[in-house]
From TrEMBL:
GO CC annotation, single: extracellular space
Name of protein: Chemokine interleukin-8-like domain-containing protein
Claim: Flavoprotein is one of the keywords in the record: no
Similarity field: Belongs to the intercrine beta (chemokine CC) family.
Residue ranges of domain Chemokine interleukin-8-like in the record: 29-87
First and last residue of the signal peptide: 1-23
Domain of life of the source: Eukaryota
InterPro entries: Chemokine_b/g/d, Chemokine_IL8-like_dom, Interleukin_8-like_sf
Keywords, alphabetical: Cytokine, Secreted, Signal
Principal subcellular localisation of the protein: secreted
Gene Ontology MF, one: chemokine activity
This protein's encoding gene: CCL4
Length: 99
């Protein structure tokens, strides 16, 4: 009679420990980059960008293209810095076009 109760207690204790350790981990980053596109991407093909999480091992920029693809690029590349400046200026609300 004591053996089944002991076994049940051990199983419940193990499940509690597993649940606690999984909860402490927290959610990880959604997307990290490990390989990078080194070729310059034309401005007209990029619709937006996002920075990867600081929890990723390598900092990167995710470029979202017109075709719906995501490309990982290095934030230190000069053409990436220019592209980010271009996209930021393009997205300024309230700015009127000179056309």
């Amino acid at each position: 009679m004591a053996a089944p109760r002991l076994a049940l207690s051990v199983v419940v204790l193990m499940l509690a420990v597993i649940a606690l350790t999984e909860g402490m981990r927290g959610a990880g980053p959604k997307k990290c980059c490990f390989r990078f596109n080194d070729q310059e991407v034309p401005k007209g093909r990029v619709v937006s960008y996002a920075k990867t999480s600081q929890r990723c091992s390598k900092s990167a920029i995710l470029l979202n293209t017109v075709a719906g693809r995501q490309l990982c690029v290095r934030p230190s590349a000069p053409w990436v810095k220019q592209l980010i400046s271009y996209l930021d200026a393009k997205a300024v609300p309230g700015q009127t076009s000179n056309l």
